[in-house]
Amino acid sequence: MAAAQAVEEMRSRVVLEEFGVRNVHTTDFPGNYSGYDDAWDQDRFEKNFRVDVVHMDENSLEFDMVGIDAAIANAFRRILLAEVPTMAVEKVLVYNNTSIVQDEILAHRLGLIPIHADPRLFEYRNQGEEEGTEIDTLQFRLQVRCTRNPHAAKDSSDPNELYVNHKVYTRHMTWVPLGNQADLFPEGTIRPVHDDILIAQLRPGQEIDLLMQCVKGIGKDHAKFSPVATASYRLLPDITLLEPVEGDAAEELSQCFSPGVIEVQEIQGKKVARVANPRLDTFSREVFRNEKLKKVVRLARVRDHYIWKK
Amino acid sequence: MEEDQELERKISGLKTQMAEGERKTALEMVQAAGTDRHCVTFVLHEEDHTLGNSLRYMIMKNPEVEFCGYTTTHPSESKINLRIQTRGALPAVEPFQRGLTELMNVCQHVLDKFEASIKEYKDHKAGRKESTF
């Protein structure tokens, strides 16, 4: 009985001990365990696999993937970072730049601005092609000139009052439709994602006048094409109490973990600790610093339950 | 999700290049002299751990495979060596192709489940917003 439990633990949990981590690698391949059929079975995978979306809004997404292996989950993470295409500024034609930001620095900053355009509606530009066509290029124009504000107070020193247009934001970028793009994309859909990104600062007499061309690319080529700020996953924590913990030890135990993980309940006059929500834990392993409590708790992670956050 | 489509596209690109055999090589087979076709090393160009690790996992799940491993030759070169040894006399190409197809099926299923889950979440949120009025 104990042996069967130990085998289950080896197959399904990654155990965190005081000085190391055990059972890290996937071992459930055919032939490794007698009595288990580990050959690939698409139906069994489909039955066990599920995706639960926990939270989704315009800028972030958190979801759970249960029943898949680390190799494939990691492949998805690598693809999210490096191989999902987006549109980003590639070429900047500078007509006039009298600001103190150098041309190349300005061009680098413009390349990193995220553009709100669906890359599936565009094609990759062929290598060696200089002119962009309407199917693979988006054009934006940025024209800003800074002037002195004639209505400012005589002795004010606040640049917001003294100067007009002294901060260049992404909202100053205007889309220039090429060819039939004006028909395909309604007004306002092709724009930078955020319109309050500061691009440069100017003083009176300085001007920026440039034309930007965006192409489709992938993160492997240049990080500006990566669509995610970051995509990461963690395994679901699994905390088991090997013995019942009561009294003051229960309070101490709840302090060792992130808030909300361990709940102390009053049962028949005694305080008893109970694992309430292990998902919230960040595994600081504080419990291993407490001599009494470290034998009572087993910290582990469920091997095939991935919590994704983007 | 786009990445599932990307993974599928990359795998099918590999397969069609295997069939054509004439474009710039994406795949090579290397075999030691004197052995029959059951232990083969495949050299995949323009690939890295993204495909290597997931493909290795799918091929290892095949009970006919005795050994499967992959390495990246050097971090500056973008290619991987994938070695497959099968039990008995099964030609090594067979588990390789089967692993690729199974990986495509997995990705397709993940994509379907994910899209269904997103749709369900959106409907649930829309339903809840309406019920609060």
TrEMBL record, chain A:
Q: Which UniProt keywords apply?
A: DNA-directed RNA polymerase, Nucleus, Transcription
Q: Where in the cell is it found?
A: Nucleus
Annotated ranges, domain DNA-directed RNA polymerase RpoA/D/Rpb3-type: 60-307
Q: Which SMART domains match?
A: RPOLD
**Gene that this polypeptide is encoded by:** POLR1C
- Name it: DNA-directed RNA polymerases I and III subunit RPAC1
Coiled-coil annotated spans? none
Please name the SUPFAM superfamilies in this protein's record.
Insert subdomain of RNA polymerase alpha subunit (SSF56553), RBP11-like subunits of RNA polymerase (SSF55257)
Organism listed in the record: Catagonus wagneri (Chacoan peccary)
Q: Please classify the protein's predominant subcellular localization into one broad category.
A: nucleus
One Pfam entry for this protein is RNA_pol_A_bac
Q: Which PROSITE patterns match?
A: RNA_POL_D_30KD (PS00446)
Q: Does the keyword Signal apply?
A: no
From TrEMBL, chain B:
GO-annotated biological processes: transcription by RNA polymerase III; transcription elongation by RNA polymerase I
**UniProt keywords, alphabetically:** DNA-directed RNA polymerase, Nucleus, Transcription
Q: Which GO terms describe its cellular component?
A: nuclear DNA-directed RNA polymerase complex; RNA polymerase I complex; RNA polymerase III complex
Is-annotated flag, keyword Nucleus? yes
User: A GO molecular-function term, please?
Assistant: DNA binding
Q: Which residues form the DNA-directed RNA polymerase RBP11-like dimerisation domain?
A: 39-112
Q: Name the Pfam families on file.
A: RNA_pol_L_2
Compartment list = Nucleus
Task: Tell me, in one coarse class, where this protein mainly resides.
Answer: nucleus
User: What's the superkingdom here?
Assistant: Eukaryota
Task: Tell me the Gene3D superfamilies matching this sequence.
Answer: RNA polymerase, RBP11-like subunit
Stated family: Belongs to the archaeal Rpo11/eukaryotic RPB11/RPC19 RNA polymerase subunit family.
Q: What is this protein called?
A: DNA-directed RNA polymerases I and III subunit RPAC2
